Amino acid sequence: MNQKKTMGVKQVVLMGMFGALAGVLMVFEIPLPFIAPSFYGLDFSEVPVLVGTFSMGPVAGVIIELVKILVHLVSSSSSSRPPRAASESWRTSASAVPFFSRRD
After folding, report:
1. What pTM, to 2 d.p., does this model score?
2. Under the phi-then-psi rule, with left for phi > 0, alpha for psi from -120 to 50, and beta for the rest, what region is 102?
3. Please, which residues have CB within 8 angstroms of residue 60's CB and are 6 or more apart in sequence?
4. pLDDT of 97 strictly over 60
């Protein structure tokens, strides 16, 4: 009796909420002037992604990360898009590797 797991409405809503919260938190980056180089910053936008990933699974984590990137791309200026989007897409693809390499 193999049943196909589908995402329920609650899980889709939670992924959207975590993604939107992470996108908003991406705006608030705290610089670390004396501890690290000037381009480093403390970014709290990964906290909702990690909470969603651990509570709903790796597929939900990738979807939350994609929603976060889309929210940030829509709400940010065009001068910061290419480098930040490149690092975000790398982070998303790196988080998907353990899911696709797992064998059940």
Report:
1. 0.68
2. beta
3. 7, 11, 14, 15, 52, 53
4. no
